[in-house]
Design brief:
With about 800 residues, this protein is of the alpha+beta class. The protein contains 22 helices and 28 strands.
Length: about 800
Amino acid sequence: MEYWRQCALWLISCKVLPVNHRVTADTAQVFDLAQTLRDGVLLCQLLNNLKPQTINLKEINLRPQMSQFMCLKNIRTFLTSCCEAFGMKKCDLFEAFDLFDVRDFGKVGGTLISECIVFSRPFPTEVSLNEEDIYNNLEDLLEYQQPQQPEQDVRSCCLSEIKQTEEKYTETLESIEKVRYLIHLCFLYTCLHLVGDTSMIFRNFRDLVKVHKSLMVDVQDSILNRNSLNLYQIFITYKERLLIYGIYCSQVEIAIAVLDLICKEKEDVRLKLEECAKRANNGKFTLRDLLVVPMQRVLKYHLLLQELVKHTHDTADKSNLRMALDAMKDLAQYVNEVKRDNETLREIDQYQRSIENLNQPLINYGRPKGDGEVRIVSNFDKRKQDRHIFLFDLAVIVCKRRGDNYDLKDVLYLNFYKITNNPTSDREGKKWCYGFYLTHNQGHTGFELFFKTMELKKKWLDQFEMAVSNIRPDNANSNSHQFKMHTFERITSCSFCHLLLRGIFNQGYLCNKCGLGAHKECLGRLVMCGRPGESSLIFSTFFKCVCRCLCDGCLLGLPRMLVIRDYCGVPQPEQGSPLCMQAGDVVELISANPHISWWQGKILGTGLTGFFPSNSVRPCPCVSHRPCDVALQHWCLMPHVLFILHRFNDEVKHIKILTKEGWFYIAETRLFKSLLDLVEYYKDHSLREGFRSLDTTLQVPYRRLTNGDAARPLLQASTVFSPRVVNTAVARYDFSSRDTRELSLAEGDVVKIYFKMSNGWWRGDVDGRVGTLMLLSRQHHRPAAYAPAQHLFIYGYAGLLFSVSTCGMGEFIFYLLPYFT
């Protein structure tokens, strides 16, 4: 019998191949066996059949579909296990490419008949034909006879890994849920007092199972049926639902501790738990092992997506997947921060128990920054006193140590102090001579703190400065805001970057005037503060203007929005009850503020009312029945904010025009000195660089008005953008314009002066007409004025509307609308 046929029969006897496999046919050739083993899966199963649990099958890809990357990984896993589990030498093994490329199948057979392997199951001992040509030309057979296999790249492997690991993880969750159910049945009548303990162990576990069953179905559908085109949307959508991991991960250590305590104190309970685990997963994993799996999984999503992004080359897909990656990174950071905050709360609780005479919860003072010994001197009492201080974000708790406990002496609220270094006190080689000052802002008692070494002083000085920086951040009052550190009761996102405010207390900063929430690093980037009442009024006016401009008769009442993503109450709104809604629902707005992320509305279909995230909706698309005469509409104004309104593919979107040090831009990589320059540029260049979904340019002017009556109300309404008036002047003579660029003046006209330039030009306003004035020499005895014509440009392309008004040296957009992402 040929050598390769003996090998095939041996594999059948090892239950790796079925009895009726094609390699047993009379017409079979050695190439058929080589092709069967090429993906490495059967080789890994062979080792497990010879010695159980040699290879964890979860570590190999059972369906590599001839992907070189995955096949080689499986083959290398087999080779590594041959060395580790069977004691084979590397020199006795074949190379991975010897099998995958079928370069030396004889050497593959040599590995399989190694004494180390066949000792477990004897191999037929008939004469080997190792040297025959049949084994030497298999590489050529592969080239000419191998049927074409669908080649998968590394990206496909990444997608397969996402799908397969989600399937296995959901299976694990169901296994844990089964253990939970069995434990509940066992303890319900025998150990009723332990039911409360089991609820601590399996905290919010049912919710996890429910979410991941749904997520697994969506991931499978996306990868198998939709070519993974909507995979990024799935992760972005599920981000909010996966926030429940914050609760689970923060309590998993307590759950394990409770489980260990129960097993240690009650032998019968431990045996019951082992029995339940055996019945649920055949005893492969203990309940203790399984409890940490969810935390490992939720922290792995961004790693899987990161690998997928790396191997995605299509620009649009890569951009979309990066958004999903950012969402999963944000989720992982949120979960870690919630876990850390719960550990901090336990630390604060220990402080609370050890400090006597403390009648305030320490959590009111923020996060702890450190504690230690210090010598403190007040500016009224020059005696150095040994004290133990606990530094928090908001205050310093000064105590005197009494054994293992501390006696409260004073609480110093850092908001009333400034920190000043005192380098003169530093003396080399001496202890307790390194200090800095705590000086009261209103002249009350101040203190000097001394530390044992220079290193300790530097450490404490940094911590004090950080605490003061947290209370009084640099940009707390920028753009007229009034931000203060705040504990948000419900999960909230930053109003600027839209990432989560992480943790469970003092997560970020809240503006007392407009209600915006933000990270510390985002405070200086927010738009001008607008009081909620004012913004809501303007916002209501805005929607009516939009509806009137877009179509005739579409405004039947309050503004209507279309739901673009599901919302089921996670995260919770900052006030009121959540409004559960699904994509496609139409919501009628009750109250909305463009500066606040939570709006109130009513679903037209059901009549339900409540609060929902503003980024879950967009303006309801309307079909226009007649051309829109934008010039005849009432123009609505948003103070200090510029926007582009465009209607593209039956969707209303808004691009915010940003300003920076006098420059205008849509994308920060390209700045413009004026809005007119910005318009001219985007007539020739795509808007895509600033607004990803709008790959178009401004091409054909929709309307152009010059000094017409239609433009006049716009100019009169532009006072919200007028520069500060520095002076006024009265025209002494009449002046008739000499061309279209000049501004006519009548004797007695009052001119508002905005600024004066050194070259004699003035910038001013006469009855709403803004221009640049030139004061002539005295012998003329009459002031002349120069003012460029006022223009209103309205550009249109593919349903796009873009409106700009230019007024001399300063340009303003008068069609100002809130921004929707």
